[in-house]
């Protein structure tokens, strides 16, 4: 029992230290006033995105970076995504819509769509955006400045998450919580080790010359979590790369229902552990089982210290992510319970080979 409690506290304290590092280092994209005029190709893979795509296109049209082209690839949508984009593009010359080719070989859908988009792009930088995000003023100019300032091959941003329903509030905050509780985000740039890697496919900005040379999406054609894998590839090739928080300059409403959130996070959960079920279970055991054992000791001092080490990081991470700290502390037990459900579904679907996304097996 003493050994289990000791291991539990070591794990909690390590995560606490990581969170404090992230909070103090404040890894956010900063707004800059120096103007840039490089051509940025904004590339958007879209499959059944009729409810989101016009919000994104309107936000691009309204933001303040002047020199861009926008290419949307319709990935065999069964809804009106193509027609909506075609209507929008007919009114705005910087926008165009293309149809994706039939999926072939080992390609996964999004990776193939991004690969085709890159073949069409003419810019100095390639900016891949998910169709459910919205961009704000200063985003593109600040990101281009960061590319020059750090001499980056890749910059990825973790968007601020919009949550409206209770189902979203008890699931979506898990993404920032797991990320900022386990990974010192600044180390992605500072460390040359490709193991230290994380990225978000919601915003991936590439140096176009390097991308044309390396064809990053082609190198990761069969990877479910292609964003993190591309980050590893970029680091392995010895190019500078960085991941930051978006600082309110890009937002996303990832999932609008409980089932959508559970399925979406379940798709990626095991991939974060390189599909090693044993490692995933050990993580869950330390994260959830350890504190439960500490509670059974009924030692008030021990329990109070443990709760402080768990809940204080929730506050720091919520502030970094632009989320309500009080709400996340209050909902923490429910969010962790939902993490268990997500983990169960991820393992069950992986073992039965029934993982799907947007109507395709992956």
UniProtKB/TrEMBL annotation:
Do the record's keywords include Cell division? no
Chief site of localization = membrane
Q: Which GO terms describe its molecular function?
A: glycosyltransferase activity
Question: Any idea where this protein resides?
Answer: Cell membrane
Its keywords, alphabetically, are: Cell membrane, Glycosyltransferase, Membrane, Transferase, Transmembrane, Transmembrane helix
One GO cellular component term noted in the UniProt record for this chain:
plasma membrane
Sequence intervals crossing the membrane:
6-24, 275-296, 302-322, 329-351
Coiled-coil residues: none
> Sorted alphabetically, which InterPro entries does this protein's record hold?
Glyco_trans_2-like (IPR001173), Nucleotide-diphossugar_trans (IPR029044)
The Glycosyltransferase 2-like domain, residue ranges: 41-211
What is the recorded name of this protein? Glycosyltransferase family 2 protein
- Taxonomic path: Bacteria, Pseudomonadati, Bacteroidota, Sphingobacteriia, Sphingobacteriales
């Amino acid at each position: 029992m003493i050994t289990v409690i000791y291991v539990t506290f070591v794990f909690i304290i390590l995560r606490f230290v990581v969170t404090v590092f992230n909070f103090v280092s404040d890894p956010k994209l900063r707004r800059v006033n120096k103007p840039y005029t490089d051509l940025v190709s904004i590339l958007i893979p879209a499959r059944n995105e009729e409810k989101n795509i016009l919000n994104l296109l309107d936000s691009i049209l309204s933001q303040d970076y002047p020199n861009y082209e926008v290419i949307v690839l319709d990935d065999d949508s069964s809804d009106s995504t193509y027609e909506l984009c075609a209507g929008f593009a007919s009114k705005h010359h910087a926008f165009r819509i293309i149809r994706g080719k039939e999926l072939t070989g080992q390609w996964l859908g999004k990776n193939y769509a991004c690969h085709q988009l890159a073949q069409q792009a003419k810019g100095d930088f390639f900016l891949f955006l998910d169709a459910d995000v919205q961009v704000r003023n200063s985003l593109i100019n600040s990101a281009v400045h960061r590319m020059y300032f750090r001499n980056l091959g890749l910059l990825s941003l973790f968007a601020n998450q919009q949550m409206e329903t209770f189902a979203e509030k008890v699931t979506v905050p898990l993404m920032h919580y797991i990320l900022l509780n386990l990974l010192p985000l600044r180390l992605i740039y500072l460390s040359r080790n490709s193991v230290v890697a994380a990225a978000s496919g919601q915003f991936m900005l590439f140096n176009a010359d390097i991308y044309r040379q390396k064809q990053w999406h082609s190198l990761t054609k069969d990877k479910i979590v292609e964003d993190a894998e591309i980050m590893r590839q970029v680091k392995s090739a010895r190019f500078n790369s960085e991941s930051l928080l978006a600082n309110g300059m890009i937002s996303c409403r990832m999932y609008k229902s409980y089932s959508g959130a559970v399925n979406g996070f379940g798709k990626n959960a095991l991939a974060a552990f390189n599909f090693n079920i044993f490692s995933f279970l050990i993580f869950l055991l330390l994260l959830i089982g350890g504190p439960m054992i500490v509670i059974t000791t009924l030692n008030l001092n021990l329990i109070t210290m443990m709760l402080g080490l768990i809940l204080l990081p929730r506050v720091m991470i919520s502030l970094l992510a632009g989320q309500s700290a009080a709400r996340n502390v209050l909902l923490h037990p429910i969010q962790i319970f939902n993490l268990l459900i997500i983990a169960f579904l991820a393992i069950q679907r992986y073992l039965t080979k029934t993982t799907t996304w947007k109507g395709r097996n992956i």
